[in-house]
Amino acid sequence: MESILIICLVGLMSGFTTVLFGFGGGFIMVPFIYHFLWFSDPSLHQESMLIAIATSSSIMMMSSVFATYKNYQLKIMNVSMIFPLFYYIGIGALVGSFLSTIILDQILKLLFVLYLIVTIIDCLFRKGFIEIQPLNQKTNHSSFLKVFS
């Protein structure tokens, strides 16, 4: 019962950070699933990182497909600009999937940490990511609310 409560809380935290920041699910889910598998089933030690990455990837894929579909329905996305990316995302996913089966678990962990570091540095130094809005300027969340209705 305690494990189910922890899994639910981590899932809520992952969803919250993803919606709040636009990313974060993988940052939370990959380390959580990795450690959860590592401590709960010793027979999965070798595969725990691969399972964690695959689980996070499938969650991201499902939420991305849903959000894209909802934005398409609301006509708030530039289809001619977005859909060509699907080919490159698909190719990257195939190459990444193949490489993840031949790269050692320790190297996958190192690559994940490097990915986190690069992402954090990008967020800190990219113009516009950390920007203070004037107090009198309101953010329009109506399109966000439409996507989830």
From TrEMBL:
Segments forming a coiled coil: none
GO CC annotation terms, alphabetical: plasma membrane
Location (main, coarse): membrane
Record bears the keyword Transmembrane: yes
Compartments, as annotated in UniProt: Cell membrane; Membrane
Segments passing through the bilayer: 7-37, 49-69, 81-104, 110-129
Keyword annotations from UniProtKB, A to Z: Cell membrane, Membrane, Transmembrane, Transmembrane helix
KW Membrane (keyword) present: yes
InterPro entries per the UniProt record, alphabetical: TM_pro_TauE-like (IPR002781), TSUP/Inactive_protease-like (IPR051598)
Topology in membrane: Multi-pass membrane protein
Domain of life: Bacteria
Family recorded in the similarity comment: Belongs to the 4-toluene sulfonate uptake permease (TSUP) (TC 2.A.102) family.
Protein name: Probable membrane transporter protein
Species name: Paraphotobacterium marinum
Origin organism lineage: Bacteria, Pseudomonadati, Pseudomonadota, Gammaproteobacteria, Vibrionales
